Amino acid sequence: MSKSKIWAIYTYSDDPTPSPFKMTHFYSELEARQELEFYQEKYPAKEYWIETGNIQITDHPLPTSRQARNLCHLLQDAFVDIRYLLSDRELSEQNRKQAYDLADLFHNLPVEMYDPSSWNWDYLENNFKEYEEKYKDRIYRSYAECIRDIRRYP
Question: What is the pTM of this model?
Fold first, then answer.
């Protein structure tokens, strides 16, 4: 595992769940500072700050093109599941939370599967296992099993 330097812009989130902070990562200080100026001009009422630190480059190989394509199909399936969860005429709080959690699991996938500093098959699978445990009586597809299958066949 190797280390790389990263910069992050932080701000307070309007929605404190799951975190009171929002963060955007950058791989160069110049890029982070330019984006910070943009945020400060566009949203002057918010407070922003930059932090820097080292990140670990994982030993997990990035997905092959076939695996990436299959992960995109899985993401498409997640959008269908989210649409289904939110389609109730009288939207329940439980459906809203489950849709939020599912979107939260997938939202970084398109970027992370091409980023050696954040890609981790085990982490991805474990997150889906936690989701499935939380909603075990409300799911019909095992995303963790799908991840295992995609990983198994490069």
Answer: 0.63
